[in-house]
Known about the structure:
Elements: H1 7-26, E1 31-35, E2 38-41, H2 51-63, H3 66-83, H4 93-108, H5 111-125, E3 128-129, E4 134-135, E5 150-152, H6 159-169, H7 173-188, E6 199-202, E7 209-213, H8 225-242, H9 245-260, H10 284-300, H11 306-324, H12 353-366
Antiparallel strand pairs: 1-2, 3-4, 5-6, 6-7
Helix pairs in contact: 1-12, 2-3, 2-4, 2-12, 3-4, 4-5, 4-6, 6-7, 6-8, 8-9, 8-10, 9-10, 10-11, 10-12, 11-12
Glycine binds at residues 47, 154, 216, 226.
Amino acid sequence: MTEQLNWVNDAWKQVTQKINRTSKRIGANFPHASENGEYILEEPQWWTAGFWPGLLWQVYRDTKDETLKELAVECEEKLDAVQHQYYRLDHDMGFMWTLTSVAHYKLLGNQESKRRALLAANLLMGRFNVNGNYIRAWNPWTAGEDNSGIAIIDCMMNLPLLYWASEETGDPRFKGTARRHADMVLENFIRSDGSVHHIVRFDPESGSRIEALGGQGHSPNSAWSRGTAWAIYGLTLSFHYTGEAKYLEAAKKVAHFFISHLSKDFVPDWDFRLPADIDAPKDSSAGAIAACGLLLLADKVIAEESPVYQRAGEKILESLYKNYGDWTGNEEGLVLHGTSHFPERKYMDNPLIYGDYYFVEGLARLNGYKELFW
Ligand code: GLY
């Protein structure tokens, strides 16, 4: 670690102390957003279910605190009930079982965790639409709704479960499916300026592209910062697993867009492309996700190109620690000022568990823990 990164040790100390404290109240549950200082606990089928156990595994890897391990294992076991409830599963099985079962298997070799993660990978494969080469995102949110043609950029972070499954089993089907989805993303989601669409709708029968939708960003042509962050990290991970230069080039292009749109404090607004009359809230979670992607990207590019991504990743995490971190003891979240869903006016200035998770993953990486759970 360089001299300038002394803050990382302080940050890690604050994180481990705080997680020791908050884990006593949160326990083996599934926090999403913190309100009035306390994390709201969700049902285990919600897409964010993996982040708290994933965070516990990140801290456990360093501290070997058995209490945190037991909570992470208990969360993983609670997810079993969801894995057999077909209607409650969507494409976010990747997020959910990578940060629970894959993490557990990678850290401790647990065979039951491997079985769970392979089952999740098979279920995720089952959502692949062969006509349009996309993994279907969601099930109907309301009775009768047809969203069988919907693909979203976030799914780039679900692909590592498939890459991992191919590596574990030697069966190339999982990786082949992930690559086809990633190729579809290159063609349909990444704009020439490096910004990305959140949602693209296809005709599920013919596979042809119908339209782009605004989703959690402002509008179809705006630039939702968290979607941009999912793209940076997800494309870099696709390069990591396949060695295909096209994914690396796309990751760099999206990273340049992201970095060049950061404000002075290095933490992104919720959307980078807004009408002048909208006072954009920050989304600290987008910063944390992007930082992890940028730090991995820095390790993948040639040496001359590396500092720009490394420095940006470090600056974002430093700002999250110093300007957005809450170390007071009155708040369960680690990182303040996340925006979950601005168009639905949901959690627009709150700590979010995925912001906390990626912040901790980024710190762990700066501390030398480079083995990926993804
Ligand atoms: N995957 C949903 C989100 O980023 O909010």
